[in-house]
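Appendix B. Chain record.
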Amino acid sequence: MKLEDIDNQVKEKPLTKEESKKQFLRLTGELDIKHSFNFDEAWEIGQEIRKRNEFREKITELEKEGYDKNIWMDEEQLHKLNPVKNSFADGCYIREIFNPAGELLVTKIHKKEHPFFLMKGEMSVLTEDGIKHLKAPHQGITKPGTKRIIYAHTDCVFITVHATEETDVAKIEEQVIAKDFNDSLELGSKVKDITFTGSLASYNWHTKSDVDLHILLDFSEFASDRALVKDFLDLKRAQWNERHDIFIYGHEVEMYFQDINEEHYANGGTCKRG
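Structure tokens predicted for this chain:
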């Protein structure tokens, strides 16, 4: 069975929580699998991911339908009714925007975590976590991948602060605004090195040898729970390898994520990412 078959089964005939738990326990015993989280934690994570994805699909559809029916303002109208003040400090871009009372708008998708401040007014904000009513003065943190629907009950002044050395607003927007939800996914860790290994890199390679590309990351830059990070990246690696058939001169290529602090003896060389 391929991963896309599993995806289709989850969409069309998802297992109940009880059915999933029985399967989880059975396969754990049969395969002697070790876990870094229990079933209830895994189920809760899955439900949160499903809820987030459903919200993202619906808000994207709503935004598209609004533009198709001329419900939303175009960029020129938006800037005219929502004047923006740009200012800069040492390593910071401060963006202040005015939202008039009675305005309903869909925000851009944010790439990076940053603070926001409601300095004046009241607004209702719909996110994947539900509806929140904000009243000035209020402050909060915007997470990567956030897209909101905002209704201004009164005239509002909203400020966001972004860490950047750039002073060109157009370039800053490229840094902080995502084209879509996939574009908003950033690792939060830079690639430290790439190792070319596998049987093809050894002295006893043969025509059936494959290529293993180990992408070295510092797992501690993601979260303190390295075991959880490893499980997540192993899953993403398996999905990627399943969905991409990559060959170099007839030799299969498989990708792996490796913690830079983990010992690994490669048969081949390494190439440093600049």
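Further analysis of this model is presented in Appendix C.
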